[in-house]
């Protein structure tokens, strides 16, 4: 079968026109060939197929352009024949071929909008009609159409899941873990490819080295921790259906406040590919559907992870659109306008990312911003604790948002505790950017390591380095330390090293951060370490959820009111006048709603 014969002449370079034929020769896919043979290789299908075979270059704009040309070609060819174009809908032969050819990469987001577009009726009897509701759309409007399809599918999947039991959700999580284990080789291979591309960008000065560390899914115990996180989430109590308030309003009239899911989530994150699995697990367990957008640096890894998740969901009680992934900024920009379908946006990344999203949407945003964490060495700090807590806070995983970026040193420690802490940090190749006082107190130690000990500049104290760099500042008092943290930090996590319990109490109450620690590393600020199983992010906001956000941060509540009276209950029966009932408001001892 010569596919070139049906391509519109002159519309593609010859090399591109050969791609469909080359693909079929290499793949020998009988289903594709059979579909083409049965239904005929129409001009409009070949247009679309040509776009699909360029898999490595496949992106949303290319897809939209393919659909546009498909529809335009349908109109042109129908006009030439002088008859009404067929109303291709969900029964169109192009849809199953599309699903077969491009599989899960397209099905969750593109197939519904493709079917909708193909089903758009058009009267082409009037040869002068050159435009239509679809063909007159610009690329932005087409992006909105695709985004609306994604968002609607997510909302419908959420609504369809409300009667899925907790046991069925746990089964889905176990299936996801098994699917990931079965696909480990291909996932890590994709991760290796992402790492290679990222390293090239680092060498070209276009990407920070710290981001490469976040990408690596095979380093240390990251893979095993990711899988264990799924199991831990599965083993957590069901967060839904928990009664947080129960009152008897009247005889046979009971009120219950019960936890329930939020709805459809849009989660945007940078670099770390394991976040796909973390958030998918939390969303499934908490009863929320989710649309995930990772950083372009981890695109191949995220794609393979999502394929494994999709494969598991297809065998579960949940809708296959329950967890979806998108890959372009255009999709995200359009999704941020879908407040009719999306209930909460969770951005994980820099302050710039969070602020940009907050200014771009009407949807509530649960922000996860920079992790500008500080450690304060109080004047009563024990030297051993000071060394251990400071070093761990900085070097355990410098690229994490809960790593320390600023060290505040009480002036009384400049000649005692501080030099020992500095020596331990320098031994671990940490670059110290010191104010004048802390720099002078290091003396020969600073002279021996000039490449690692440097004077600080004001911007260092509001910079998230995400590397082996630490800003050091001398402070005269606890009050000065608290003031500096509240002024410069991102309100993430801050720690005090002290032997004075009153100072510890003052620090924890006065520092306005989501986490305040005493004699403990800032690296403990993590949902897994808190026992949440895993986390969707760390919120530095002040409403709904704060700090590491696990299952509890992904549920809200609803009120259930039940009358078991034979006549029901009406408000008109209650009041202060004669013959009126009074509300009883007595507590009902229960943990679960009885209906």
UniProtKB/TrEMBL annotation:
Ranges of residues in domain EXPERA: 1-156
Entries under CDD domains matching the protein: ALDH_F18-19_ProA-GPR (cd07079)
E.C. code: 1.2.1.41
Reaction(s) this enzyme catalyzes, per UniProt: L-glutamate 5-semialdehyde + phosphate + NADP(+) = L-glutamyl 5-phosphate + NADPH + H(+)
Gene Ontology MF terms in the entry: glutamate-5-semialdehyde dehydrogenase activity
GO biological process, one term: L-proline biosynthetic process
Membrane topology, as annotated: Multi-pass membrane protein
Alphabetized Pfam families for the sequence: Aldedh, EBP
One CC-aspect GO term: membrane
Entry's localization field: Membrane
Superkingdom field: Eukaryota
Keywords in alphabetical order: Amino-acid biosynthesis, Membrane, NADP, Oxidoreductase, Proline biosynthesis, Transmembrane, Transmembrane helix
Pathway assignment: Amino-acid biosynthesis; L-proline biosynthesis; L-glutamate 5-semialdehyde from L-glutamate: step 2/2
The keyword NADP appears for this protein: yes
InterPro entries for this protein: Ald_DH/histidinol_DH, Ald_DH_C, Ald_DH_N, Aldehyde_DH_dom, EXPERA, G-glutamylP_reductase_CS, GPR_dom
General function of this protein: Catalyzes the NADPH dependent reduction of L-gamma-glutamyl 5-phosphate into L-glutamate 5-semialdehyde and phosphate. The product spontaneously undergoes cyclization to form 1-pyrroline-5-carboxylate.
Homology family: Belongs to the gamma-glutamyl phosphate reductase family.
Protein name: glutamate-5-semialdehyde dehydrogenase
